[in-house]
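Running this now, will post back.
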Amino acid sequence: MKVPCLALTLVLATGLSAVAARPADAAKTRDQAEAFISQLKFLQGTINLHDNLATITVPPDLRFLDSRDAGVVLTKIWGNPPQPDPLGMLIPAEGYLLDADAWAVIITYEQNGYVKDDDAGSIDYDQLLKQMQRGIADSNSQRIKKGYPPFDLVGWAATPRYDRPTHKLYWAKNLKFEGATNNTLNYNIRMLGRRGVLVLNAVAGMKQLPEIERMTPEILAAVDFNPGNRYADFNAAAGDKIATYGIAALIAGGIAAKVGLFKGLWIGILGAKKFIIIAVVVAIAAWLGKLFGKKQPASS
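Update: finished.
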């Protein structure tokens, strides 16, 4: 039987601070979470994203949730803080959203201009990592004030790689959240376009790294800008805007966040990805008995 270990760790380690941070309309019991799941529409095939901005051809071993359903998963099922709904979400075709090893690729778009890639070949990734670690350490006090556990950037789970011909960038971070038994994997993919960047963030446990690494080429090939929105379509004469940052800022995140690129980097999903029941402390023991005794569905 699979048990949401990260959820349990966060409940017991953070107490009512985790409860206070959970959205009011989020599932309060496992049965309510499963009811939300039963209403989701899992899609496959070819799907248009964001008014013909891009197209995704969903790989056979993945499923797609549209903007609304992805928002339901993030806030009502996984209990993350409210954010604008993403363009969609990719999840494994085999698996269950309440499993301890559930993972997803969240797709968003940031229209902040054409990102020049001149610096791609000259970035010192060791130095960049140190800057990112300092930035995260400095931001932890604000996370604690908002009721979320602090975390550390342990290191690269996959060193950044930029494919210049396709203008696609990907890397992975190994994150350690206070009170969590296992580290969190944050796998990042960025696709550069004419007016902005398609952002794909895979959030999972570190043990899912081999699976996500194996699927990354498939995901990279499945999503692309439509004609007119591609990197090669940039036209300064037509008034196209050039972004004020480059490849290093996309990876650093904290730098890019200052100009609004990631709107908080979906920090909530990194720490509160699993199902966390909302209950007073005295009810936790009763919930655990119900949870551990319930048969886990094989799939949705």
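Strands lie at 45-49, 54-58, 62-66, 88-92, 104-110, 151-163, 168-177, 184-192, 197-205, 223-225. More later if anyone needs it.
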